[in-house]
User: Fold this.
Amino acid sequence: MTESSPTPAPGDRIAFDDPDYRAAVVDLLAVISYGELVAFERLAEDARSAPSLAAKVDLATMAAAEFDNVLRLNQRLSELGADPYAAMEPFREPLDAFHQHTAPADWLESLVKAYVGDGLARDFYAEIAAFLDVDTRDLILSSMERTQHSEFVVEHVRAAIAADPRVGGRLALWGRRLMGEALTQAQGVAAQRDALSALLAGGIDRPGMDLAALGRMFSRLTERHARRMADLGLAH
Amino acid sequence: MTESSPTPAPGDRIAFDDPDYRAAVVDLLAVISYGELVAFERLAEDARSAPSLAAKVDLATMAAAEFDNVLRLNQRLSELGADPYAAMEPFREPLDAFHQHTAPADWLESLVKAYVGDGLARDFYAEIAAFLDVDTRDLILSSMERTQHSEFVVEHVRAAIAADPRVGGRLALWGRRLMGEALTQAQGVAAQRDALSALLAGGIDRPGMDLAALGRMFSRLTERHARRMADLGLAH
Assistant:
């Protein structure tokens, strides 16, 4: 440890001495980074079909913010001695599959997907971040902030439902499909990545989650999903 | 003029008192901004088909840098009392036409287009910026900086030609086509936007270009285009 690198808190140093902990953090930062990279591409693609120049610039602003997070997460991966691209590799298939199975049919489905999908990811990663050292937790939580995003989407979706109430029914179904597909893919990732699963189970000096705690986490995620659907004017 | 806004240099204040000058600057910032917005979309699209995650992140980095310029240019347009989106509107058709007529057939054509097309635009706007007040000139010149971009493209294109020399012939033709299409569209814009043409012709307190000077500018643009083609290992 040189003088120029920040001194970690004692608990953090112990945490990173545990190779399983380090592997779990690398996995987590990499899956978030790849997720943001794909989100960048998706939002930039949506910007192409935006109905106005102003909406185009709003979407491109979101896309650029996602990409800024990719660079910060990759920098941290490099600091941890990991190759960011190699670390992302195991998550390409499940995340690409999620997006293939939830290709939006139109501009409104894109907006709902951005809002509901990113919200779910944010909540899920925030739950996991609670188990991590403070530096990693702060990095993850700051990567997840996107208020500007939210207002823009809520406004557009509510206006579309006001103009044609049938749109609400279709988008409500779409929101449920997004939730189902996200759970399917998350389950697949958890089954394949031992370090990530072990993180939730706890370790030396670190509390974990028992089945009851996992159940409570799942309830919180579902509740917040329902609240987001309600924000958009959609029945859960 | 309030105390919080920067005091312009005397020459600049005179310049913006001239409504034709202000109209020309609004046109110029708007065409550059729309050009960078389209470049953002194009690079983000290219990132989707990048052959590796590392190349994907390189292209997305360029895309995000282009978009950052859009926000800065739009901010300046707003400061000048213009609606950035309305100001961009007249340039959508010619710029979209340029991109429709020069849709890259593959990844290498994308790279050459990014390098050669952006280089041409940069040189052209830098020539015009020489006629402008210092704040506008600095904003335009700083929007045009992209060294990182260049190295990445040169490396990829040279490697592809080394692997298969026939690629060089095809890409050399492609570079000539890009130059021809850019001139066609630029001519169309100049014919339609009186304020921009008047800027080149000069005004009160501002030197302009006579036909001989226009000819020399055109030679400089062609020379630099040839140098860029050579950088890529392509015959002009």
Summary: The mean pLDDT of chain B is 85.
